[in-house]
Specification:
- With 810 residues, the chain is an alpha+beta fold.
- The protein folds into 3 domains: 6-70 and 347-394, Immunoglobulin-like, CATH 2.60.40; 77-339, Jelly Rolls, CATH 2.60.120.200; 403-798, no CATH class.
- The chain is built from 13 helices and 42 strands.
- An 8-stranded antiparallel sheet has the order 12-11-10-9-16-7-22-21, with no helix packed on it. Strands 8, 13, 14, 15, 19, 20, 23 and 24 form an 8-stranded antiparallel sheet that branches. An 8-stranded mixed sheet has the order 30-28-31-33-42-41-39-37, sandwiched between helices.
- Helix 9 packs across helix 10 (534-545).
- The radius of gyration is 29 Å and the shape is elongated.
- The two termini are 57 Å apart.
Length: 810
């Protein structure tokens, strides 16, 4: 067992001066812990670099706190508070189900029965279940009636059960939608039970059941509603659940599949008859309100179910016809909700301390609440102080890629991916976070992971401890900092070089738009801003078109379509992000057909490239390849001599190896790489001023969206597109973009106390981009018509060094 006895999170990623931020801590074991607010500067413990660096911040919350255990109530479900109408004497329960893990191994983390539609707890009540053997089961009080027939996984089944209190007749129906030639016939199961239903004062559960009412229990405290422990979290889809207060005939059950439509007339002839309408208790329509976290009940009592931990909606139902792929066009075919026993949208812990950020004296920077114990435990809860719009304090701003941080949040790939060792060309070295997460699935996974039932995770929340957004954390792919700790390489360089800057997050630019960035001279990205929202890209485009300057410090950016789920905006901005992996791109899982559109915003998911927004069009380069063994370096190209960009190389010799050193893979060109490609959106006047072409290993492979079929020669030893290009291009009104095109690039900045040629190159660019006024105008002869693939060999910058008469050393 791996023990991380301190874990925590904050209620915000970004906080304005003068605003409060709350912190939530699980202290499992130590009696107390110490809190210190720190300004984070470097999070890399590599001895070849500056090491971990922070600065203490004076704060009234810097003190010792009593520890307490807090638990995440994981797994998605729906519930309706207890009501008199559910206290039936007789009943009919029915629903369609698509189970994804109907039978689990006894050592599975949540092995046991799974609830479908339940009003049952501790042998009181009634409900439909999938039992431990993977068979449909009806429970009435302590009695269990089962078909004894295993439910086929990843297939639709119609399930129903009736109980007539007057006669004691019980009937259980299990009807697969598809019956294969050699499938046995499943007959209804009939029994006689002479009893009265004992009703417990518990909620109705959808995809779960109530295990207990425990107001003082730590698990129940984080439940919703608080004080109720829900168990039996179901894995799979549920469509069209119904509850009626009489035992219906099989013919009436068939009619009830239509749901409930009050006010039946000659012209409103969809739904049950008046006779059947009288017996409906609840008839949920999951195809309604797909962009919400409420499951609508169209029955007479309007028992809308609250959905907890954000199950997947916009999922194809039992009646999906394969002709409509956008749920907004055919919501009646998207009446399924997909539940998972490891979903989480909010840890729902109690706050342990709260800090009101001073109006003055605290700069816009990377911060964390640093938690320690006398026994050596340590935890960091990161956050960012962000100025209000119109109150910027610098000309330079760093755009913190928090959507990407959320996409990679609590990644399990190192532990769960069978090919991880082949992928990284070495044995993956685990961090304590990796092992802890493997033991605590309730902390949720990343959008690179699959749920415990094998389906892809498409939702990520920031209201939980995210153990990968921490300093001192090395990712298994790089065996070095990745995402958040890698971006601290850039922060360390800015601090060492004495630059003044602000920071803002992806959620800030998504919600504030151009207003968030228009007053800065230059925006600097992180090392890996892969995941982006549409409003964010709109704002960046408008910014560069109006003379703003963009320094793209990494690679594999602007790749996946993300959106923030609107149902959580009452809790805060950017709480839950959604992404669906569609038919292309680098995918650890793939969405099923018909499930490509986001449930929150209704927009098409997948790659921005396949929505006509090419990666290369944002900053001039786009992803071409990736590899995770060693990093390489760049060489200048003839384009770097062009007077439009030659200033960037002041003090750097033409023959210098650019970045043949670094803290990520040993070089500046590594992990994931971008190139110039005018056919994919790089502006035709883009200058590729340096390249790593020809310097990568067979571990580096071309991205799959760039080739139509598999073949030999797609690796770094042979394919010309497996490289990184450093590039520059001007934008209208005196703006410009400089792309450094490698995730490993920022890892070279702090090398040798920032005294190196990568540091010099970035400083030259930043000094020029941060200056007031438009960039110097290009030479008059640079203004000319260009095609997408025009490479005129006559200009000097496009001639070989030999043809230009340059001296060729050794």
């Amino acid at each position: 067992m791996t023990s991380m006895r301190l874990t925590g999170y904050a209620d915000k990623f970004s906080v304005h001066p003068g605003d409060p931020i709350k912190f939530y801590v699980n202290c499992n074991g130590p009696a107390e812990y110490k809190v210190e607010i720190v300004h984070l500067i470097n999070g890399d413990t590599n001895p070849r670099g500056p090491g971990y660096l922070d600065k203490p911040v004076a704060a009234d919350v810097n003190k010792t706190y009593k520890g307490r255990k807090q638990i995440i109530h994981g797994g998605s479900y729906g519930y309706v508070p207890d009501a008199k109408a559910f206290h039936v004497e007789s009943f009919t329960l029915q629903c369609w189900i698509w189970p994804t893990a109907p039978k689990t191994h006894p050592r599975y983390w949540k092995h046991g029965a799974q609830g479908l539609v339940t009003k049952w707890s501790k042998d009181c009540g009634y409900g439909l279940f999938v039992n431990e053997d993977g068979c449909l089961e009806l429970r009435i009080n302590e009695h269990r009636i089962t078909t004894g027939v295993p439910l086929r996984d990843h297939a639709w089944h119609f399930c129903a059960a009736t109980f007539d209190a007057a006669t004691g007749d019980v009937v259980l129906y299990h009807e697969p939608q598809v019956v294969y030639a050699l499938d046995p016939v499943i007959e209804p199961v009939r029994q006689i039970l002479k009893l009265a239903i004992s009703h417990a004062p518990v909620p109705v559960g959808i995809a779960c059941y109530v295990e207990s009412l425990a107001p003082d229990d730590a698990l129940a405290a984080s439940s919703k509603p608080a004080g109720v422990v829900f168990a039996g979290k179901y894995n799979g889809k549920i469509d069209s659940p119904r509850i009626c207060k009489v035992a219906l005939s099989r013919q009436d059950i068939e009619t009830m599949k239509l749901g409930a439509q009050p006010g039946l007339t000659e012209r409103r002839n969809s739904g049950p008859s008046g006779r059947l309408s009288e017996v409906i208790v609840a008839a949920w329509n999951f195809g309604k309100g797909i962009d919400t976290i409420v499951a609508s009940d169209e029955g007479p009592y309007r028992f809308d179910a609250q959905l907890v931990n954000c199950p997947n909606r916009a999922m194809t139902g039992y009646n999906w016809g394969g002709t409509n792929f956008d749920w907004k066009h055919a919501p009646h075919e998207y009446g399924a909700i997909s539940f998972h026993d490891d979903d989480v949208d909010d840890a729902r812990w109690s706050a342990d301390f709260e800090w009101s950020v001073p109006e003055t004296g605290v700069k816009s920077r990377f911060y964390a609440a640093k938690l320690t114990t006398s026994e050596g435990d340590e935890e960091f809860i990161p956050f960012w102080v962000v100025p209000r719009v119109g109150q910027e304090t610098a000309k330079i701003a760093v755009m913190v890629p928090t959507i990407s941080y959320m996409a990679y949040a609590n990644e399990h790939v190192a532990c769960n991916a069978g090919g991880a060792e082949l992928f990284v060309y070495r044995v993956p070295i685990m961090q304590q976070q990796n092992m802890y997460l493997a033991e605590h699935r309730e902390y949720g996974g990343s959008i690179y992971d699959t749920h415990t039932d094998g389906t892809g995770i498409s939702i990520s929340s920031r209201l939980r401890p995210i153990l990968s957004i921490r300093p001192k954390y090395d990712h298994f792919l790089a065996q070095a900092p990745w995402q958040y700790p890698a971006d601290l390489h850039l922060i360390c360089w800015l601090e060492t070089m004495g630059y003044d800057y602000d920071v803002f997050t992806d959620e800030d630019i998504t919600y504030d738009g151009l207003a968030r960035i228009e007053n800065y001279n230059v925006i600097i990205t992180g090392s890996h801003p892969e995941h982006n929202s549409g409003p964010q890209l709109d704002a960046l485009h408008n910014y560069t078109q109006r003379g703003g300057r963009l320094m793209y410090m990494g690679a594999d950016a602007w790749y996946w379509v993300h959106s923030y789920h609107p149902a959580y905006e009452s809790t805060g901005r950017g709480v839950v992000t959604e992404m669906r992996r569609c038919e292309s791109g680098i995918r650890t899982w793939r969405a099923d057909p018909g499930e490509y559109y986001h449930q929150g915003t209704g927009e098409l998911g997948g790659m921005w490239r396949f929505r006509g927004r090419y990666l290369h069009s944002v900053a001039g380069t786009g992803m071409s390849s990736e590899g995770f063994d060693v990093s390489s370096y760049f060489s200048r190209t003839p384009d770097s001599l062009d007077p439009r960009v030659a200033w960037a190389f002041d003090g750097i010799g033409y023959d210098e190896k650019l970045g043949n050193f670094g803290l990520v893979g040993g070089g500046a060109a590594g992990l994931e790489l971008d190139i110039v490609d005018t056919m994919l959106g790089s502006p035709p006047h883009t200058l590729a001023v340096a390249t790593s072409a020809g310097r990568h290993t067979e571990a580096y492979l071309l991205v799959m969206e760039d080739f139509g079929f598999n073949q030999q020669g797609l690796d770094g030893t042979t394919h010309p597109r497996v490289r990184a290009d450093i590039a520059f291009h001007e934008t209208p009104n005196g703006g410009g973009c400089f792309a450094f095109s490698s995730i490993a690039f920022c890892g070279s900045l702090p090398w040798n106390n920032c005294d190196n040629n990568i540091s010099k190159l970035v400083k030259n660019v930043l000094d020029r981009f941060a200056a007031d006024g438009p960039l110097p105008a290009p030479p008059a002869d640079a203004i000319k018509h260009r095609g997408r693939a025009d490479y005129d060999p006559t200009p000097p910058e496009h001639r070989s060094r030999k043809a230009r008469g340059e001296f060729l050393s050794g």
